[in-house]
Amino acid sequence: MARNSAPRTPHTGPFVGARPFGARDRRLFHGRAETVDALVQAWTTARLTVLHGDAGAGKTSLLRAGAVPALTDRGARVLPVGHLLLDPAFPSAVLPEQNPFTRALLASWNPGGFPTHGPGTSTTDFLRDHERVDRYGRPLPLFAALDQAELLLRTPDDPGPHRAALVDELLVALHDHPGLHLLLTVRTEHLADLRRMIAAHGADHTEVRVGPLDPDTAVSATARALDTAGVRHPLTVAGRLVEEVRTVPGTSASGAATAALTDTVDPVLLQTVGALLYAEGSDAFAADDVDRALTVHLSLVLEEVAAEHLVPRDLPHAWLRRAATPGGPGAPAPGAEGAHDPDLTRGLVHTLQDRHLVTPDTDGTAYRLRHPRLARPLADLAARPPTEHPEPWTTAHRVVVARRAHTRGEPDLAGEHARRALRSTPPPRPRERVLLTSLLGDLAFERGDPAVAAAYYAEAAELLEAVGDGAGVARLLVAQSSSRLQAGQRAAALDGLRAAAGRAHGDPSLRTGIGQALWRVGQSQSALDLLDAVLVGDRSASEARRTRNRIRAELTSARGLTPRGSW
Questions:
Q1: At residue 474, what are phi and psi to the nearest 5 degrees?
Q2: 386 vs 112, which has greater pLDDT?
Q3: Is the dihedral of CA 106, 108, 112, 114 positive or negative?
Q4: Interior CA angle at 18 toward 16 and 23, to 5°?
Q5: Which residues pair with 53 in a beta bridge?
Q6: Among residues 221, 232, 262, 229, which one has the least CA distance to residue 245?
Q7: Burial letters for 522-553: b for 16+ Cβ neighbours within 10 Å, e otherwise?
Q8: Which residues contact 241 (CB under 8 A, 6 or more apart)?
Q9: Contacts of 526 (CB under 8 A, 6+ apart)
Q10: What's phi and psi for 12, nearest 5 deg?
């Protein structure tokens, strides 16, 4: 691709590839002005807005590079965009009854406060602390968003009650906080489920849909981005790129080569091809260039997906080939008729969908190739030997992969990645080792193996003690003691709680966890005294208030029965 000598941002160029646009890419984000305006209008006027579209349609980009900066430019109060990724930095066993997805959301809305402040807070209490009023006492608007809400609506391999409960919690918060303007992004395939949940709460909402680009808009937007990056003849180059992305090669009945143009332009495919060829310095955008680039891209993606799910690359590749068969039944979803391979999990299929390779049929029983332009590179891949990646990721990458599997509801996969990372060479750095070990503790605790969980938490605490992180040690001591209580190790658990109490003076969530543990061993009055003290200093300690109320109700129903023991 011809370039002039004008300075440009070297780490992005004019294309972002398959990842979403972020605030830093705003100067490259073009072609969505009308949709951004519609989204901002809906978000500011409606209490609940649902932004929906297919995977890869651009929902996250619209939010992060469009609507949020536009509102911020107006001086609006906008929380950081919410997302869901479970974090072992605050062990599950500290507050075992709290919804972990609530913690994940609030951590993303308040990244500077987690995990030392806020883990024991509910959504509604968090929002109450962020409420502001004008001089007349009227609530001022507060804009909050949860991106990729389909994570709460998908059926994981290991389902639980917490996902739907967070949706309910958010809808209740709308009623409790009149200044809140909430935006949820969701894939259209899950829109009907979300609508039913909204209707059950009697809430009104506005919907904004984002779809593919029309060809003229795609050419104009790409040309503007190329021009920003200093590319010569940007309109000509953009036109060739968009035409080639729209071109679907085929074969006629007589065996002659054919080609057809799609009516719309897939944003992810456009960005992916553009980034691949721009990195090579190519501006030809001929069919052979695009096929070659996409074949390399597909090879790398399939290797990454297979490595993430610990399966041979042949499994996702063969499944994708079925999805690409014209007129065929498509590739079966896990559990559907024809899906007999036990390694074909919902998580693996969801990851292929998240990587913009497949899209589900309307009934969700089968998947098809996301874009017909991928069919020929996918077929070419069969003859291409895979690149050898015996250890494809750094430890930091494996930490993220393990957390992502945990969030998706694949605990066995999360645990295996954590164990492999702990055995890797070179060994993980101390804090990475702590996160991985704490994650293994969470997984053991959640599957009902508290003795094993306690051992992992104890190991993680020793590692943190060595680097001088007193707050982290306190969290792990509470988690270890809570696990020991469930394992029947009462004396050791109480010793651990005493040690943790000496470190947890400024952390309401940890003191709440200690109070809950005391209650579970029958020391109700001691627990009540501790929780009352927590609430004196922090009215937003939702778990403390909930637990205190339960203890009070228990003591009242006992009709004056003397609480057992004192710690």
A1: -60, -40
A2: 112
A3: positive
A4: 45
A5: 187
A6: 262
A7: ebbbbbbebbeebeeebebbbbbbbbbeebee
A8: 222, 270, 273, 274, 277, 285
A9: 518, 563, 565, 566, 567
A10: -125, -40
What is the CATH superfamily name and number for domain 395-557?
Answer: Tetratricopeptide repeat domain (1.25.40.10)
Angle between helix 430-446 and 470-486 (nearest 10): 20
Domain with CATH 1.25.40.10 in the chain: 395-557
Of the candidates 473, 502, 535, which has an alpha carbon nearest to the alpha carbon of residue 94? 473
What is the β-pairing status of strands 331-332 and 358-360?
Answer: unpaired
Q: Indicate where the chain has its CATH 3.40.50.300 domain(s).
A: 23-209
Tell me how crowded residue 327 is: count the other CB atoms within 10 A of its CB: 5
CA distance 47 to 547: 31
> Which of 152-161, 322-331, 396-405 is least confident?
152-161
Task: Evaluate whether 131 touches 179 at the Cβ level (below 8 Å).
Answer: yes
Identify the bridge partners of residue 181 per DSSP, sorted by sequence position: 143
Model confidence at 386, pLDDT cuts 50, 70, 90, reads low
CB 358 within 8 A of CB 285: no
Fold of 23-209: Rossmann fold (3.40.50)
> CB-hemisphere CA count at 13 Å for 346?
15
- Global pTM reads 0.90
HEC per residue, 22-58: CHHHHHHCCCCHHHHHHHHHHHHHCCEEEEEECCCCC
